[in-house]
Amino acid sequence: MQLINNSQEIIDIVKRVGKSFAGEFRQSIIPSSKAEFDKALQNIEDRCFSALKDPIFHLYPEIPWAEDDELSSIAQRTPFNDEAYWLCDTMDGAIQYLQHIAGWTINLALIQNGEPVFSIIYDPTSDELFHAEKNKGVKLNGKGLTPNVKKSADIMIAVNEYGHQLKNDHLWKEKASSSYIDLLEKFGVIRNYGPHGLQLAYVAAGRIDLFVQTDLDTNNWLAGILILKEAGYSVLSMEGKTWIWGTEGLIAGSEQALELYFKN
């Protein structure tokens, strides 16, 4: 069942919200205490969520909104019970926003029957919007994406990411260091860019060759996962199996990068 009648209406709302924050970017003082930092983060989340939810709910009042708890591993292991709902990472990379660093995005995904069927990742500082719909492909600012054709690991860029949940695992140091060393041994350039959804979109755009994250971060991945799949990329578990909701760890990349990663 098709839930979205006019995707451009939603795209326009997301861009409007993103641009409103872009107009304030680097205008405030960087917080100097944890209390100020936490308050500023919460203010961003509240403002952004309300600015997105209100106009989209007016268009689609029958679709509920999930209150996304990024820090709860339980909430990320299974989809919510609703047949369809909006899942919004209001500002992925909000810490970078507060630190006056580019690379923060507005992410929105529509979940239907336990999988993303519509997603947007908007980077206001670059004015780049990735948009995917299930079985309809993916576009960047209205144009299709060019597949990645690199074959040499020496010039490939691999991302080694981690989420807030990692330090709850008593083996987190071992997992993080092992993953990083593994990538250093196989690829020419290793980076950690920040917003996870945008990095997944960059894989789809051929800008990043491989994305690896060892812990559980489902809600931050979902918008990017649909973009990757619609661009024809594989989304795998750490063991190289097809990624399913609730899997701890995610690997995505070009066919060539994945082959090199899993090569003994």
From TrEMBL:
Mg(2+) binds at D89, D92. One of its GO terms (biological process) is inositol metabolic process. It holds the Pfam family Inositol_P. Keywords: Magnesium, Metal-binding. Gene3D superfamilies: 3.40.190.80, Fructose-1,6-Bisphosphatase, subunit A, domain 1 (3.30.540.10). Its cofactor is Mg(2+). GO terms for molecular function: inositol monophosphate 1-phosphatase activity; metal ion binding. This is Inositol monophosphatase family protein. It comes from Chryseobacterium lactis. The lineage of its organism: Bacteria, Pseudomonadati, Bacteroidota, Flavobacteriia, Flavobacteriales.
